[in-house]
Amino acid sequence: MMQEEDLLQVAADWKRAGREVALATVTATWGSSPRQPGSQLVVDQEGRMLGSISGGCVEGAVVREAIEVMADGKPRLLDFGVTNEQAWEVGLACGGKLQIFVERVE
Length: 106
Prior knowledge:
Elements: H1 4-16, E1 21-31, E2 40-44, E3 49-51, H2 56-72, E4 76-82, H3 84-89, E5 96-104
Antiparallel strand pairs: 1-2, 1-5, 2-3, 4-5
């Protein structure tokens, strides 16, 4: 797993290379969560990503939101909650909640 500082360097490198870039950061978790606050995911306009903010279905949803953030420039604060029953359905070990801030890299 890459260090968070490395992900910020990747975001800067992608931006310098002419890509649109968004950064997703876990800001809070409740209950069980595979990644802790401060975990990050870098996404470009084509949906390429590096890092991890949760795994499973949440990352797919965050990538879609990140692409919208790159398009309109408006940051978003996303909330995801999963019950224990839903967690098994999407392949997670157990339920929990997490909050993710998504912003465009300028």
